[in-house]
Amino acid sequence: MTVKKKTLCVLAGIFLVLIVWTVWGNTALERNTYTIRSPELPDVFDGYRIAQVSDLHNAEFGDRNQRLLEMLREAEPDMIAITGDLIDSRKANIAVALAFAEEAVKIAPCYYVSGNHEARVSEYQDLKTGLEAAGVTVLDDAQVKIEVSGESITVIGVNDPSFHADYLTSDAAVMDRKLSELSSEDAGFTILLSHRPELFDTYVAHDMDLVLTGHAHGGQFRLPLIGGLIAPNQGLFPKYDDGLYSGGNTNMIVSRGLGNSIIPFRFNNRPEVVLIELKGQN
What we know:
- By secondary structure, the chain is an alpha/beta fold.
- The chain has helices at residues 3-27, 66-75, 94-104, 116-119, 124-134, 171-182, 200-205; strands spanning 30-38, 49-53, 79-83, 110-113, 137-138, 142-148, 151-157, 190-193, 210-213, 222-223, 227-228, 230-231, 235-236, 243-247, 250-254, 272-280.
- It has a single domain, classed as Purple Acid Phosphatase, chain A, domain 2.
- The chain is built from 7 helices and 16 strands.
- The protein has a 6-stranded mixed β-sheet, covered by helices on one side. It has a 6-stranded mixed β-sheet with strand order 6-7-8-9-15-14.
């Protein structure tokens, strides 16, 4: 075999490995766990577990998302937070989203906020109605109290700023107005469900204790020692693409999400379910 043929064989082998790695990396679910500590957390919520599902984009992991649902069951959450882009605007198949929701509510109470893809489709009202019929709490610029043994925490959910786009008001200004209307100093420990991680400074300014976001898809292509390559509303080398970020009294978790959209695949960036365990300060 000539040197040229050997080189071609090596390159073909590397290319094949990359294809297999990429296919596996787009279908092999991963669960990542974070512990959030806060002196504001009531004692009865110590150990409270939240599973976060984000950016499904109509993806299916197994028939009717059975692999995803099984991962959620194994996590044994006290609540499930769905942080937007449950559907994809290019093909708004709400049947996939509703089939998932109907099973997810059997695992734990589910709380949902919209993403930018929901804002682009005419089917959003049908999706919202279907989710509510399934038993999901849809937080369209709303808040709820979760009570355990007479103590409570607050969950605020905001719909995506894309619903309010007028090209004159920034997303940060839209979010600032929403949180000014929804938050209060006497709310106690507060969890914010919001699709957009790039608005972190606004969340810090409103003293949110814990923020759960998605949208960035982990930067789509994750590079060793660098991180994500590109994310919507952040561009190249996004600042908020994956994991835990802290500022002031605020912790924000950015889920890498589950599905894909305009860019149809991920690299070195497995789809994930996030599990958060709340703990008191001590």
